[in-house]
Amino acid sequence: MEIKTFNQNSMGQNVYLYYSEAHREGILIDAGCSEVDIKSLEKCITGHEITVKAMLLTHGHYDHITAISAIKTLTRAPVYCHEEEREMLETPSLNLSTHTGKPISAVAEGTFKDDDTFEVGEVTLRVLHTAGHTPGGVCLYDAENGVLFTGDTLFRSSIGRTDFPNGDHALLVKNITSKLLTLPEETRVFPGHGASTTIASEKKNNPFLREGV
Question: What stretches of 113-207 show up as alpha helix (H) in DSSP?
């Protein structure tokens, strides 16, 4: 499995294409692309002849959904979010895009819930519901390859903000501690913003989580 990251956008939001060279299929994780990212994504998809099977959203804040329409035009991939995030996608005041002066509304063709799975290439991505940053925030875990996409749940040496509407700091820390820090320490973590890390590093160094380990 290969991971390509696209983040040449104003919010530094990491958009991931997780794909199999052997099977020529992949899954796109989040959709905060800029026009530059879209062109790079198109070049990658075309060059590797990849069929994007789905667009999976870790949560519904505007910086993770701005390019849904453009990506759908490019890939025709259906959009999925947690069942508790659907209203956020559709409502600019909830996805916070009203604060940017450019309200965004998007529609998910399908929803998922905790422990649902998606097949891509030769592996399975499992949904881990990690509410706290948003009610329907999730992480996506590939146990076979030791890869975890954490959206805005867990960052390198930090965690997601909880001062937005419906945020819950205690719940976020609880979910990270019980669902993420229990994964194998060598698990590679790919967050929604910033550099990648590992579970071992976050258990040791993350100042927001030391008390919960």
Answer: 169-175, 199-205
Q: What is the pLDDT of residues 16-69, one digit of tens each?
A: 999 999 999 999 999 998 999 999 999 999 999 999 999 999 999 999 999 999
Say which residues have a Cβ less than 8 Å from residue 192's Cβ, sequence separation at least 6: 13, 14, 30, 58, 64, 150, 151, 152, 155
Spatial distance between the Cα atoms of 69 and 188, rounded to a whole number of angstroms: 30
Query: Can you read off the two tokens belonging to residue 197?
Result: 């890390």
Name the nearest CA neighbour of 183 among 151, 152, 141, 154. 141
Specify which residues 139 forms β-bridges with: 128
pTM for this prediction: 0.95
Q: Is 38 helix (H, G, I), strand (E, B) or coil?
A: helix
